[in-house]
Amino acid sequence: MSGVRLLIGTKKGAFVLTSDGKRERWDVDGPHFIGWENMHLKASPADPNRIYASPSISWYGQQIQRSNDGGKTWEAVNNQFTYDGDAGTHMWYDGTPRPWEFKRVWHLEPSLTDPDTVYAGVEDAGLFKTTDGGQNWQELPGLRRHGSGPAWQPGAGGLCLHTIIQDPSNANRMYIAISAAGAFRTDDGGKTWKAINQGLKSQGIPDPNAEVGHCVHHVAMHPERPNTLFMQKHWDVMRSDDAGDLWHEISGNLPTDFGFAIDVHAHEPETIYVVPIKSDTEHFVPDGKLRVFRSRSGGNEWEALTKGLPQSDCYHNILRDAMSVDRLDKCGIYFGTSGGQVYGSNDAGDTWTAIMRDLPAVLSVEAQTLP
Amino acid sequence: MIRVVLPTPLRTLAQVTGEVQLELEGPVTQAAILDALEGRYPALRGTMRDHVTHKRRPFVRFFACQQDLSLDPPDTVLPEEIASGKEPFLVIGAMAGG
Question: Distance, in angstroms, between A160 CA and closest chain B CA?
Answer without folding.
Answer: 20
